[in-house]
Amino acid sequence: MDRRLQRRYVHLVRAHMSASTRCAAGPALLPGKNHAAAATQAAWRFFNNERVELSALAEPLRQAGREACGQSPSDLVLLTHDWGKIDYKHHSAKSDLRQLTDEHDMSTALLVDAHDGSPLALMQIHVKTARRVHSTAIKRPTKDSYHLDQLQPTMDEVVDWDLHREVVHVIDREGDS
Questions:
Q1: Are residues 28 and 64 in the same domain?
Q2: How buried is residue 105: exposed, middle or buried, by Cβ count under 10 Å (0-12/13-18/19+)?
Q3: What angle (nearest 5°) sits at the alpha carbon of residue 168, between those of residues 164 and 172?
Q4: Fewer C-beta neighbours within 10 Å, C or N terminus of the chain?
């Protein structure tokens, strides 16, 4: 990304680092002249920019995962895979978000310390919409792929994450199907 997009990314991350109260929904605006609508529009433009790749945005999280692995006394690290449903019942029918109807709209891969079970970093995420799968994977799953098939791109990329630990994939009982 060019320097302007990098600065925008840092600004968006900082805005999400803390909320004004523990119960507040969404980011806290950083000091400045921004209003919520302007901040939302800026985020929308950033994430819809073709030069912004989700895999690049995930890299700081993966770096945090690598560093945390290096501090663990274990030779293993766990990568837990899970699926979830996203429900936007109150959005307009025209919205792409309204089309999230599959039972497994989102899948995540969370790195967990095998020594003490503490979460280390979110390493991969896939979100299925009516149009496509938005993913931090280099080779993202297709929209029509079965949700268990979303595991393969993540499992293939693990070797490129340079975790310097043997990765044990943990999948809930649903993986038995």
A1: no
A2: buried
A3: 150
A4: C
Convert the pLDDT of each residue in 70-111 to its tens digit.
999 999 999 999 887 766 566 555 555 544 445 557 888 999
Identify the domain containing residue 38 by its residue range: 1-52
* 12-26, 81-95, 159-173: the lowest-pLDDT one: 12-26
Sign of the CA dihedral with 133 first, then 136, 138, and 141 last:
negative
Query: What is the rounded average pLDDT of the residues 136-152?
Result: 77
Q: 124 to each of 9, 55, 62, 145, how far by Cα in Å?
A: 18, 9, 9, 17
Integer-rounded Cα radius of gyration of the chain: 18
Number of domains observed in the structure of the chain? 2
Kindly tell me the burial class for residue 48, based on how many C-beta atoms sit within 10 Å of its own C-beta (0-12, 13-18, 19 or more).
exposed
Residues 8 and 81 both lie in one domain: no
